[in-house]
Design a protein that fits this description.
Length: 150
């Protein structure tokens, strides 16, 4: 009698192995590529004096606003998120720009995440249905062979 504790033959087919290799290759490329990009950014920046809003208390003069195209290229504070707020440091009375995260941007990121999770749910649900049908077909084929052998 055959054991049911074995790897399905479909998982060892070249097409399935190629799909798995492609998927994990893309995942690792995404992870290691992001790590390399962030490492390049940290080594390329020059050591600068810390902004006053990191060292002392500050008052927000202008709320978080989207940077213009020109400011996004010229101001270092705009490069990080694309949004900036103007702050006034209390001790030094110095006005500086501080990078910030917009509520609108956060909402867009949230809905992108939700859409990605919904898409993954649909993909894996379809995969479960397909696999279940395949296993049902194999089971009925096995029963048919057992009945024919009697």
């Amino acid at each position: 009698m055959e054991s049911d504790c074995r790897i399905p033959v479909a998982c060892c087919r070249p097409r399935a192995l190629l799909i798995h290799a492609l998927f994990w290759g893309l995942v690792s490329l995404r992870v290691f590529g992001a790590a390399l990009l962030s490492e390049e950014k940290t080594t390329a920046t020059k050591p600068a004096v810390a902004p006053c809003w990191l060292l002392e208390n500050f008052v927000v003069l202008e709320e978080c606003n989207r940077c213009s195209d020109f400011n996004a290229k010229t101001q270092p504070a705009c490069r990080r998120t694309g949004y900036v707020e103007r702050v006034n440091c209390t001790k030094t009375s110095k006005e500086e720009y501080k990078s910030c995260r917009s509520a609108l941007m956060e909402e867009h990121l949230f809905w992108k995440f939700e859409a990605a999770m919904l898409a993954l749910t649909v993909v894996f649900a379809v995969m479960v249905v397909i696999r279940q049908r395949w296993l049902d077909r194999l089971a009925s084929e096995k029963v048919r062979r057992q009945i024919e052998s009697i």
